[in-house]
Amino acid sequence: MIRLRFKVYLVAGLLALTLTSSFAQTSLTPSSPWGTWLIGTIQLPTGPKKWGGFAEVQGRANGAFSQFFYNELKGGVSYDLDKNFTLTLAGGRYATYDYKALSDGPLNTEKRLWEQLIINQYLTRLKFEHRYRVEQRWFTFRDGTTPYRSRIRYRLNTFIPLNNHTVKEKTSFLSIYDEIFLNPIGPTFERNRLYAGVGYQFDQQWIVQLGWVNQTNYNAANFDQGVFTPLLATGKNNIVIGLTYRLKRSNTPERLPTQPD
C-alpha cells in the first residue's frame, strides 16, 4: 500500500511540474492557436547482433489539423553498446512552407546529420532516457542563401507504465520529457521543448501516443549603443499524435517507446 501511494504521489508530482513549467513558458510568449504534429515511425529493434534502425515521416500544421506547413523525412541506424547505452547515426530532410501558398514551394529546406548517445535507466516502475545529440545542418532558402548551422540537444524523457511493471504488450503508459536546444555560436539557449502524453502498446509491434508539446524559441538578449533588448521568446502549444510500428525480431529486450524526433 505504501509503495502504491508513493507511485501515485510521484506521478502527480511529475504532472504538476510539467504543468507549472508549461505556464511559465507560455507566460513568456504571446497567446497562439493550437498546432498539430503527426508522427509516423517504423523501427527495427536491436536484436542479438545489437544493430537497429528507424525511418520516420512527420507533418506539422499551424492550426488544429489544418494549415499544414512543415514536413520531415528522416532515418538512421543504431547500435547497442549494452542494454543501457545506444549509439545512433541518422539524417533527414526538413521543409518549411507558407501554409497560405503551398504551391509556391518551400520557404527553406534543410538537410541534417546527427550523432547521438542514449543512456537508459530502468527502475522498478520508473524508466528514464537521457538523450545527447549533436547536429550538423545545411539550409537552402528561397532567396538562394545556403547557411550552415550546428546544434546540441539534450532530452530527459520519463516513462511510467500504468498497468505493468515494464512497457510491453497491452501496456498503458505516461511519457513526460523536456528537451533543450543549444547553439554553439549563439544565442546559446535556442529552444525548449516540453512534452506530456499518454500511450498504449498493443503488442510487440504497434504503439500509439497522444500528447501535448510546447515548443518555445528564444532570441538572446543584447546591449547595443546603450539600449538593452531583453530576451524574447515565441512559443506554441501543439497536439501530438504518434504511431509506431516495430518490425518483428526475435530475442528483443525491453525497449522504451521513445520518439526519435
Can you describe what's shown?
- The chain has 261 residues and is mainly β.
- It has a single domain, classed as Porin (Beta Barrel), CATH 2.40.160.
- It is 10% helix and 60% strand.
- The protein contains one helix and 13 strands.
- It has one helix spanning 2-26; strands at residues 35-44, 51-63, 66-82, 85-96, 108-122, 127-141, 148-161, 171-182, 189-201, 206-219, 222-224, 227-229, 232-246.
- The strands form two sheets. Strands 1-2-3-4-5-6-7-8-9-10-13 form an eleven-stranded mixed beta barrel.
- The protein is globular.
- This is DUF2490 domain-containing protein.
- Keywords: Signal.
Explain briefly what this protein structure is.
This protein has one helix at 2-26, and strands at 35-44, 51-63, 66-82, 85-96, 108-122, 127-141, 148-161, 171-182, 189-201, 206-219, 222-224, 227-229, 232-246. With 261 residues, it is mostly beta strands. Strands 1-2-3-4-5-6-7-8-9-10-13 form an 11-stranded mixed β-barrel. Strands 11-12 form a two-stranded antiparallel ribbon.
Topology overview:
Elements: H1 2-26, E1 35-44, E2 51-63, E3 66-82, E4 85-96, E5 108-122, E6 127-141, E7 148-161, E8 171-182, E9 189-201, E10 206-219, E11 222-224, E12 227-229, E13 232-246
